[in-house]
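Subject: mismatched residue count in predicted assembly?

I count 921 residues in my input, but I want to confirm that the predicted structure covers every chain. Input:
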Amino acid sequence: MSTTNYIGKPTSRVDGPAKVTGAAKYAAEFNVPNLAYGYVVSSAVTKGKITKIYTDEILAIAGVLQVFSHENVPSLAWLDRSYKDDVAPGGSPFRPLHSAEVKFNMQPVAVVVAETFEVARYAASLLRIDYDVVEHATDLEAKRDDGYKPGGGKTGWMPPPAPRGNPNDALQNAAHRVEGEFIHQAQHHNPMEMFATTVEWLGDKKLKVYDKTQGAFNSQQYVTKIFGLSKDNVQVISKYTGGGFGSGLRPQYQLFLAVLASLELKRSVRVSLTRQQMFSFGHRPHTLQYLALGANEDGSLAAVHHHALAETSQFEDFTENVVNWSGMLYQCDNVKLTYELAKLDVFTPLDMRAPGAATGSFALEIAMDELAYKAGLDPLEFRLRNYAARDQNADKPFSSKKLRECYHEGAAKFGWAKRTPEPRSMRDGSQLVGWGVGGGVWDASQQKAAASASLNVDGKLTVKSGSNEIGTGTYTIMTQIAAETMGLPLEAVTFELGDTALPEAPLQGGSWTAASVGSGVKAACDALGEKLLKLAQKMEDSPLKGVTYKDVQFVNGQIRLYSDPTQAVVIRDILPANGQEKLEADGSASPDMARQSQYSLHAHNAVFVEVKVDEDLGTVHVTRVVNAVAAGRILNPKTARSQVLGSVVWGISMAMMEESVMDHGFGRYMNHNYAEYHVPVCADIHDIDVVFVEEEDDIVNPLGVKGIGEVGLLGVAAAIANAVYHATGKRIRNLPISIGKLL
Amino acid sequence: MTKQTTQAPLGSPAIALPPTSVVTLKINGEERQLHIAPWTTLLDALREYLDLTGTKKGCDHGQCGACTVLVDGRRINSCLTLAVMQEGADITTIEGLGTEQNLHPLQQAFIDHDAFQCGYCTPGQICSAAALLTEGKAKTTAEIRELMSGNVCRCGAYTNIVAAIEEVLTTQKVQRHE
Ligand code: FES
Ligand code: FES
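Triage response: the counts match. Full output below for your records.
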């Protein structure tokens, strides 16, 4: 019997006690000595030039230390490439306080630094600025004819594949056809923790930077390149991140401003953004999608046309994979996918949970529902008839795909068989009841990641990798992997992350952390295990003499022979017996490209939703959701379930609430606060059931994990819209499904 | 091209700032003195002046509940009150509810039910739930949901938050009847 098998077990978060007691410290919570506070002044206009900043008036206020603006920023790196972070899209990155030019509303135009937060905030509110204003354009709908094919794009962007088959003829000749436009507005990540950076000045241009980020290394290289500092002088720390959802994939401007102020004032400085300012940078882009689908008499898909037009800034081409999924989720031989951008006077959009796929699946999965009705088929049956056994985009087999099981297990749990197909046919008292289905597909990817492992003479294991914890459970699953690999109890293992002094890990994003950092941690522990075995073999009367690493297992605090488990050495005894205080090893893991490139690597989900609609009031309640997910091996069903629960809440939010409302007259999001930018509260969330479909996959990575942070969001908004149609007979293709659209 | 000035000129002489004074707050059973200006919110007093950073700031406008603390047993948004207004009151923050070695039943239930992800809304949720328990108004799941709706969780941990609170509520009921 093994007591140290932790992988796959529902383990409570190892960082739980720190989080529930308030001991976990986030970026703005390091109260270093002699701290000054910076408060950002946001541009009041959308486009133009600053002609005058009345800095003197502010400097006269007691306690104000300095006002930084383009007028007094020292000369910094000149080339664009110094400002590019790990996931910068093509173009020319925004440089804070670089020139008098204003490119978007709420652009940071100055930072007021003072002795206290209160004085900085007050002084910032008084700073007068004159602008010359020119006309701006913020309305994507006015740019329908100005779309262009993006050039470079960013890492991970795949231009839509070339058309296949005869999409035009096939659509024309299809027995059943649907077409329509699908719209969602910009959405902002709004993690609970607002962006903040605390820079601790250690003298002589040496900085310790506590940053809110999803990648400490990304922040470090950004700072070192721009300010011409060496990596030894800039340590970035991010032990806890109060939500990311993609917003922390790029360094935000408070990092630049805090470092600037610290270097100039030779003092520790903190800059925190306000909730309003959380709407002044990257977001899920406002996107217009056109979909046309055709089906044959037998219910097979005849043609898929999917076009998207998304907003980007004037200075960067932000791209995401919106339409590609429509060429691979279902079997279809005639497919045309196109993707364009239009430039607006806004900040560059940014990856937001399941970027591209959340957008694309919302449109595709509603259109599929519409076509199922046209073809007279149950929407689930229609999906099953068009099941894609192979990735037709890449023309490769899937490394594993258990979407069919997701459909079956999800439907069984939900009770889908009891659904009557006609709209308005199901009721609960005075309320209309609707049931809808949707789903999606998401990349399973792995990045290179390094880790180190160190065993102490007291039997405690410390494993390190500079990854991040944004709520996904990184501390916990890495502790599980390390403990199981070394055969040690969970309590004996500490995992450290979020520090550029640790081995390098990739950005926390793309649902790849479990696969990437997990593999790195496993490699480091295996390396340590091999060293440990060698030491064990040196012990007197060692029963392990002459065997190789493959012949032994690490379990229950012992190294023992597979062939005869009674032949064992207690791990705790090995270092003392060898007179050693500590044993250390490094490891790193990279994807096995040669093997992986022959396959299409993806996670899938199917989601079933019940809504209840009060027709008199136009209110919709999402009363029941079953989300069935096939994402490889689940390392920790407890934290993984929470990831999917959160994704469902995000789907409900996307369907029913989220919308950054742009006033095109001002060029500003008018609901830029937590009261008017609606997200679900406790009373909005009812029963949510998560099903993990078993899926084995040793191709995707040695751990067999596909990542779980994003796939659960796919198709949720569509399933809700489909349920609303089933309940009311009204087809809403424009999110959010607000009361007004139903009355 | 149009000219635009954002604000009217400041009156001179330069603005006078409110003077600081000594404020005594009773926090987690301990008297704490601090030198602050009267415009300092209770939230900033806790986080910036007393290093009690367990209380979180998610909006500074009373819209999210991350800053929830207990004042004389009632839950309030500490960003919406000034520290000076709470002199003499009994203030309890998350640090006062329990410690890692000695968790409050709600803290333990939040861990057991995985009622958080990033953890940033969590201290506010737990303080809010603590008051909910003493208020005695929430008896059903629906009532818990309704009365916990002042605390946003962007990670979407609501299902588990409700489960955690329900568990503590039921145990309390059982204990009361014993
Ligand atoms: S910070 Fe007080 S309610 Fe949001
Ligand atoms: S746990 Fe992240 S906001 Fe609630």
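The mean pLDDT of chain A is 96. Marking this ticket as 'not a bug'.
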